[in-house]
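ok trying again, last paste got cut off:
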Amino acid sequence: MSTAISRKKVHMESSGTALVVDHDETRVTALATLVKELGFEPVVHTTAVGAREFLHQRPDLDVIVCELDMEGLTWDTARRSLPELDVQIPIILISDEARADAMMTALRWGASDFFVRPLDDIEALERSLGRCRRQRQVRRELEQSRHSLEAANTELRGTIKVLEQDQQAGRQVQMRMLPSTPMVLGDYVFSHTVIPSLYLSGDFTDYFTVGDRHVTFFMADVSGHGSSSAFATVLLKNLFARKRSDLLRKNDETIYSPVAMLKRANLELMDLEVGKFATMVVGVIDTEANTLRYSVAGHLPQPVLVCREGARYLRGEGSAVGIMEDAHYEEHLIDLPDSFMLALFSDGILEILPPKNLIEKEKYFIGVFEETADSPEELVTRLGLDRVETAPDDIAALFISKRD
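nice, full thing came through this time. structure:
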């Protein structure tokens, strides 16, 4: 061995650390010397117990060079012990005998390489040690990547938790922005249901008295879902509240005009510059004259009026608000029946109706009203809203009823 060693270039600096294990002190000393000359810093142990205790300390080793027929060590035991230690260090086995069964057993148990004494082919051993060092380095890098990913995942979970808390808080705020339900004004009853697809909803509805005899209401379905759409509903809520206040403070009667309100909503959404638009229905009920003044801004399904004569859509045209500056809206004025129910839904309702296309959905939708229109609660049940656990889209419903 010493002759072979003398032919090798002695490395000046260690390129790795090797645990050298053999119960024969003469052989382990010679092997440690050879390992050192091949560029590795040897750590020598002459007992299996000592080597195992050393591994328990989780040393930063590149390779283990070990005698195959080590006293006090059976490789069947080692095969079970090394995973318990979570040791993933490549192992090179050395033996005095070139027994095929021993070599196959060693390789099957996870040894990276196998050499037979005398170690004449030193370059082969050097290449093997180099492969083990590179393999170990790759495992170190993978381990670092795993730790980095775990740290990133931990940070991400924390961020998601904070976002969920923010969303839950936002949802509570949005729910509190909705009007009380039901709101009873003489013979008129106003009620609503909002089912968000996420924590926050892009659908919103509101109704409030204006003066002694009018009630203004609106249904808005903002494009998209989540926080940005919910913020747009806050803007609309604020707009209607401001115009209601302007009536009292400035005698500004914009709040009585559905078309004027849609134009204001159109301009304010465009000024927001967040790429959001909304379909809307705005209406004003005169409770003394029992009339409805309303405008539709691209909203589907259109409002449904149900009375003794049956159910029908209230027609109206106009583009959604927030798309074009010079949008045009129609205003309609109708006399309401003595007893009626007016229902407004956001388009999320169409997503849960059984028919596949829009025309069939609208037929199915109006059919439900013709079959079941005694109360909003029955309609909610008939349409399955009380059974929706995860809505594919936000769903909002506004009901206005009058009984003579």
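cool. The longest strand covers residues 214-222. Residues 1-12 have pLDDT under 50 and may be disordered.
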